[in-house]
Fold:
Amino acid sequence: MATFLFDKIIFGPIKSRRLGISLGVNLLPVDQKLCSFDCVYCECGWNPKQRKEKPVMPTAELVKEKLEMQLQKMVADNELPDVITFAGNGEPTLHPQFESVIKDTIALRDRYCPKAKVAVLSNSTRIEHDDVVEALKLVDDNIMKLDGGTEEIIRAIDQPVGKFDLSKTIKLLQRFNGEMILQTLFMRGVYNGTSVDNTTTEEVNAWIECVKQINPRQVMIYSLDRDTPADNLIKVQKEELETIASYARERVPDHILITVS
Ligand code: SF4
Structure:
């Protein structure tokens, strides 16, 4: 299906279902996806099977320059963002200067739009690195992916490129001491001739047990929104997401806010 890549470092602002008026920052190459997962639903398509060119990521200096130019324009137009969001063509924490980029961004936010939040959408695969964790602790919303409660379903949906260990991921997510948002995409369908469904009672119960262990301040649940690289995937409708959210709210501590978008 028609997936797409962001062709710029700074994109938007766009109206985001989950985040409001969001100015996007893409730290990944503009000509190819680069991710430690290869989710069957990824709007950027698949990772290249073979990379003809070495992926080129923008330097921290270039990101700072482009972001400052865009924020200056938005100030002049009196159209400030609600949030500056790190997303784009893959996993933002793969950028080798991620921590510097986050520090620069917070300084620019403080100067040009102090009411805006800084958010990072991450797939949680890089949090064994102290510098990544320290950077993620600096932002307002570190939104970490966990698409299921069993390794089997996460492998089926997210297709980790390298090693993946669910119990280790949970332990690493506990390093945020609850100061994080968990994001979970619910979907069902058939991929490579096998049923993939993280909405069954069994899978939802396993996921709830992980949520309890991670103890985030918020959980965002949502479903497919754009074209996906795999065919035969089915969007979970809002009513069903609300049912999953209600079921989870009864089973997790009250301080964990569960939202549907
Ligand atoms: S983690 Fe995000 S960028 Fe990476 S494959 Fe999944 S949806 Fe795409």
User: Anything to note?
Assistant: Residues 35, 37-39, 42, 44, 90-91, 123, 145, 158 surround iron/sulfur cluster (CB under 6 Å). The chain has one domain: 10-260. The chain has a mean pLDDT of 96. The domain at 10-260 is CATH 3.20.20.70 (TIM Barrel).
